[in-house]
Write a structure and sequence with these properties.
The protein is mainly alpha-helical. The protein has a domain at about 20-145 and about 155-175. The protein is built from four helices and two strands. The chain has helices at about 20-85, 130-140, 155-175, 200-215; strands spanning about 90-95, 100-110. It has a two-stranded antiparallel sheet with strand order 1-2. Strand 1 (about 90-95) and strand 2 (about 100-110) form a beta hairpin. Helix 1 (about 20-85) packs antiparallel against helix 3 (about 155-175). The termini are far apart. The relative contact order is 0.09. Pfam families: Nop25. It is found in: Nucleus, Nucleolus. This is Nucleolar protein 12.
Length: about 220
């Protein structure tokens, strides 16, 4: 005789019940797109933050360069004023007439260059007065450099331009992705009237009606 199967009391409890949830299914299917949009949004925010940071660094660097150039210009003006005070006499202006032109020679003398913060005396005293005059003219005629308009650091400019290009590329992709769905938008599909073929009897009836109308 075969063995009798024992009816287990826990057979009903071990059964698995599967229920279909439409809301969870929709959330699972659309979750990939949502996460992709979220990652793109985070990347755009990061690019904007980096762009603002680079612009702030460039402004600070430009401000520092401006202050440095302003300080150098003030020092050059102070040296020019001190040299103006050292010139005690500007005499001996001689006009020499030539057949085709007139030459005027002006001698600037009595320059005291041994004061504090001046050019100073060198050990070799064999230099002529002409060399001292050339030094004085070089200091006086020192051109004032223009203020910097752009940053001298090309790395920051290249980084800002690359971040801006990436931001524009993301914005263009976002605009291209928004396409109007079917049945939406300003344009509607216009249905063209379809031409149907008529039978011979229908054409005769139409011609007969037209003839009676003309009579």
């Amino acid at each position: 005789m075969g063995r009798k199967k024992k009816k287990g009391s826990g057979s009903a409890a071990s059964r698995l019940v599967v229920t279909f949830d439409e809301e969870r299914r929709r959330e699972y299917l659309t979750g990939f797109h949502k996460r992709k949009v979220e990652r793109r949004k985070v990347a755009l925010e990061e690019i904007k933050r980096k762009l603002k940071e680079e612009q702030r660094k460039m402004k600070e660097e430009r401000h520092k360069e401006y202050l440095k150039m302003l300080r150098e210009r003030e020092e050059a003006l102070d040296e020019f004023d001190e040299l103006e005070h050292l010139v005690t006499s500007r005499t001996e202006s001689v006009n020499i007439d030539h057949p085709n032109h007139i030459v005027t020679v002006t001698t600037i003398s009595d320059l005291d260059l041994s004061g504090a913060r001046q050019l100073g005396l060198t050990t070799s005293e064999g230099k002529s007065d002409g060399s001292e005059e050339e030094k004085g003219e070089e200091v006086v005629n020192k051109p004032a450099t223009a203020m910097p308009k752009k940053s001298r650091n090309p790395f920051l400019s290249e980084k800002i331009s690359s971040l801006t290009a990436t931001l524009h590329m993301h914005s263009r992709k976002k605009k291209k992705g928004k396409r109007p769905q079917r049945g939406q938008g300003p344009f509607k599909k216009i249905q063209k009237p379809t031409m149907r073929r008529t039978t011979k009897t229908q054409r005769r009836r139409l011609t007969g009606k037209m003839g009676r109308d003309q009579d």
